[in-house]
């Protein structure tokens, strides 16, 4: 693998970590998960954030290695510290569900990471924050609606449905049934079953 990566490096004149990550991605596409994991791990251990994220995915889903959420969290954390937006989202989810430390510290750090990922345009983080702020112990409905709208405008059908709920129930916005219907129709057109059921109701 090191030799193959070196040859790629010579051809493209790119850093060996990038070459290893490319090899890993191509190996994963070809179904060679163990080879892919090895490539990702070599690049990750050289500090390449995209490979660290990929190693986290491998550990989280058991691709090319044993499933290990603690190791997944470790690699997501490394990539997140280099401002990898999707890793910030994944590590935030890990912190909220499995992370070490006090619940307050985990919660505070996770929200900060989600905010960064959402700001970088990660639709999943926007959708998660939208629901999080709507349903939290101290709901912040306007803030939640802002993130739901961002995710909806990025094409997330479930968030579009939630925006409809906000307009129907007056959560973070003035109640407007016509606007609720518009969002439900858009969500239903994207295949959301809840929106279709709501329209029928």
TrEMBL record:
Q: One GO term of the cellular component aspect?
A: mitochondrion
Where do the TM regions start and end?
A: none
| One Gene Ontology term from the biological process aspect of the record | extrinsic apoptotic signaling pathway via death domain receptors
Q: Which InterPro entries match?
A: ISR_Activator (IPR052748), Sel1-like (IPR006597), TPR-like_helical_dom_sf (IPR011990)
Instruction: State the source organism's domain of life.
Output: Eukaryota
Pfam families with a match to the protein in the record: Sel1
Q: Which protein are we looking at?
A: DELE protein
- Which organism does this sequence originate in? Molothrus ater (Brown-headed cowbird)
Q: What is the lineage of its organism?
A: Eukaryota, Metazoa, Chordata, Craniata, Vertebrata
């Amino acid at each position: 693998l090191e030799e193959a990566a070196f040859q790629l490096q010579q051809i493209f004149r790119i850093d060996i970590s990038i070459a290893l990550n490319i090899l890993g991605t191509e190996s994963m596409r070809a179904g060679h998960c163990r080879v892919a994991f090895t490539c990702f791990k070599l690049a990750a251990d050289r500090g390449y954030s995209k490979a660290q994220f990929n190693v986290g995915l491998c550990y989280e889903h058991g691709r090319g290695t044993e499933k290990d959420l603690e190791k997944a969290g470790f690699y997501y954390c490394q990539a997140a510290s280099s401002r990898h937006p999707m890793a910030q989202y994944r590590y935030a989810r890990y912190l909220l569900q499995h992370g070490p430390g006090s619940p307050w510290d985990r919660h505070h750090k996770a929200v900060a990471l989600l905010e960064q990922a959402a700001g970088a345009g990660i639709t999943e983080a926007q959708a998660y924050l939208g629901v999080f702020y709507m349903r939290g112990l101290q709901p912040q409905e306007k803030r939640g609606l802002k993130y739901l709208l961002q995710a909806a405008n990025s094409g997330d059908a479930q968030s579009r449905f939630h925006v409809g709920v906000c307009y129907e129930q007056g959560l973070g916005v003035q109640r407007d049934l016509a606007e609720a219907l518009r969002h439900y129709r858009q969500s239903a057109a994207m295949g959301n079953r809840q929106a279709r059921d709501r329209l029928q109701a």
